Amino acid sequence: MEEFRLDPIDFTFDLISSEKTGCRECIPIENALKSIEFKKGYIRVYEMKDRVQPSRYQLDGKFFKRSNAHGYEELIVESENHSSTFSSYTADDIEKLLLIISERLNELKTYEIGKNISVSRYVNGHDYWDLVILPIPMQNTQKCHVCEGLNYVGNREVYKTENITVYVPFSPKKNELLRITTIKHTSIEELDNIIAFDIANIMIKIMGKITKEITFDIKQSGSDHFEIEVIAGESDPIDALGITRINYFPEDSAKKIGEKMNDGK
Ligand SMILES: [Zn+2]
Ligand SMILES: [Zn+2]
What we know:
Blueprint: E1 3-6, E2 13-16, E3 34-38, E4 41-47, E5 65-67, E6 72-77, H1 91-109, E7 116-122, E8 128-134, H2 145-150, E9 157-160, E10 164-167, E11 176-182, H3 193-209, E12 214-221, E13 227-232, H4 237-240, E14 243-246, H5 250-261
This protein binds zinc ion (2 copies).
């Protein structure tokens, strides 16, 4: 059972989770939701049942808030083997993949699960995308933070096409190398083949010239303008949404520590 908790001081969330870290796709799962043609085979989409509880709850309590609002998670898997072929894909392949993800998010949009989307891909691991949609954190959507940020990129920009900019963020996340975004306000659901092709080429360039030990994380929160975070090493999709994963329950921890402190020795 997982649970979200809100820190009342800085309004950041923890996800308290017993989930083991490691390759999600190598955890045995069954019954694909759907199959999509890709290259000479099929992409399969698996719902992650342990996390799938489309939420009808708001966080409860007045000050210390908690909720078992889990949102939704699925894996979009290109291959059943634990090896990576992503860096050998052509720009056409990656373009097609990005459009498949966009189409899938369009389908999921009808369920109104939440506005926080993270679709992450560790380039050196298993060939899958880990898709998470959450109703939290709540976002202030008055102005688009991505469009606003682009006005001040200045000397932090490292690459540009007609449609896309690649830059080092003003305040990068932990291990974040670069961020890719569309110059024009565009949601991931309205991604077209022109933008997808530009992004595919940039991804290939980054993997070829910078490093292959990265995670690409397509992220969209509140303002409906997607960004792609390029993170060094392997990264949890929950992290991209600004949520810290904690692998113990505070109450269990208090019990264990309390017993030792009070055992009278
Ligand atoms: Zn694996
Ligand atoms: Zn925007």
